[in-house]
Amino acid sequence: MRAEARLVAEPDGRGGTRLSTVYGEPPLLPRRTNPHHRAAEVHFVGGAAGPLGGDDLRVAITVRTGAHLVVRTIAAALAQPSDPRMPSRLDVVATVEAGAALDWLPEPTIAAIGCDHHQRSIVDLADGARLTWREEIVAGRHAEPAGDLRTSTAVRCAGRTILRHDLGIGPHAQGWDGPAIAGAARAVGTLLLVGPGAPTKPAVSGTAALMPLARGPAALITAAAQDARALRTALTATTWADDPDAELDICRES
Prior knowledge:
This protein is mainly beta and 254 residues long. The protein is built from 1 helix and 18 strands. The two termini are 32 Å apart.
């Protein structure tokens, strides 16, 4: 299956954000939620099972100057078993203009046994744009080994690469369950923060770590945990804020 979704957010002239483009093909069906918030919020709902082997999916996002877009999913994505000769693919391409903000906050992707799923994200930020970008992976369903899942994330700010992060799990990703990557953890994830609210001090907490990026203001939080719930807690812990009394509002679920 080939499917595409497109979102374009722009200022509504009243201090909020409107969606000038909301387009999707099954299984990528975007629906606007929380219409009374200043930010525009979209949830992707599942229009079909997947991703399945051979699926080629693409999401394109543009956030215009002065707009704020929040993108979520209503449930975790289950990468289904597939023929190794026909992997499933998801490409997410986002452009965020100066003075705009994008929060990409999907639920985890579960790598079911036998899957072969490739996910690539490319984000272009103008100088002065803000970004919250969360990626979470769960290694298989309950009590089953993980399938193969590879992610690649590249983020550029004002034309300069500030992050390039690749991760592979599953039987063909040798060493992914070793002590240097996930160990005995069943869930791994990252949270990228770009903008004035990004923490500036490195920190370690349990199996999670925060690393300020050289070309900031930006920081990357990485974590491993036993399940998706513990992973989410580790990624969004308030201890990551420089101010001990502060909260990472950009990470808060609404």
